[in-house]
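Exam revision sheet. Question 4 asks you to relate a sequence to its structure. Input first:
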Amino acid sequence: MSADGGGRTCAGRPTTNFVSAGTRFIVDARYELIKAIGHGAYGVVVSARDNDTGGKVAIKKIPCVFEDAVDAKRVLREIKLLRHFRHDNIIGLIDLQPPPTAVLADFVDIYMVFELLETDMQRVISSRQVLSEDHIKYFVYQLLRGVKGLHSAGVIHRDLKPSNLLLNADCDLKVCDLGLARGITRSERGSAADLTPRKSASSKTGQDGGTGVAEEEEPDQTGSELLTEYVVTRWYRAPEIMLSCSEYTRAVDMWAVGCIITELYLRKTLFPGKDYIHQLRLIADVCGTPPDEELNFVKSKKARRFMSDMRRREPRDFRELLPTASAEAIDMITRLLVWHPERRMTAVEALRHPCVLLLLSLRACPHARISASCCDTCAYLPA
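Answer key, structure tokens:
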């Protein structure tokens, strides 16, 4: 890592520049590099000190963002959405760096400044860290609050997974990565007419069963939006997406929530499918095969025939699959991992479930929270 002086942005703000993880950052002079904290197909993320506030932030650099229209649209969508959210359980966009000059050709990279959290749920699940029932319930409660916040604003996240849930040492949780989120303000549903995978040149397979850069929907001649199969990372993808349903709803997020809750107890992925057929079979192994009358949401004849030809399976007993989970948690999971999207619990209904009802009542005081490190037993404490 190295740092040196800089110039000014087109807005007249002084800048500093430094190199971290082999990537040069040119940012507002108020930010002082601490260390690199992540990198991938999207770019590099560093932690920095905000000398104006004394706090710490995360700065994400997305290089050459305009070289690929799909990537550029995803970044633009995330920026537009995050500007409108002020929610305890949704990541906050603090700052957006202006271009270095007023010349369009010089506007190549984008720097997004976020709240800094120390880790994500995927790292916690993969670690040896012991999670008590209180930890899990508090994570679930905050996840549901974040999802409810999105849904109440007419937004579907469409890529909920453990790596998109940021955490700090006090077990506070924030939903992040709204690059695939989509507003549904006109109606409850969005079109999903084209479920044929279309891989962009920048797409890379991720370890969570999806692509590193998810594909973008293209408008058809009628102006409707098309949802590709790759919108939701495969392992957390709702059955209706893989069964070529013509419409999708907020229920796709709730399926992912059910998968994430189960993973917190199992400490491994519930449905690690290799492809969409294998994914559906894994779901059937756990949730059972639905009777034909419960497949009325599937309009594709080919998809219905595939499900009808599938070997009949009875649902597994989640009490045996998750022996450490409470009866309330088991009940919530079984109400979320439901084939029919209209029979899945909503975020509002889930927040009223006995599994998290105590936390909801504690949250009546806006400062109530669990303050504990991830290795201690949680205690309900006022801030």
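Marking note for examiners. Residues 186-206, 210-231, 364-383 have pLDDT under 50 and may be disordered.
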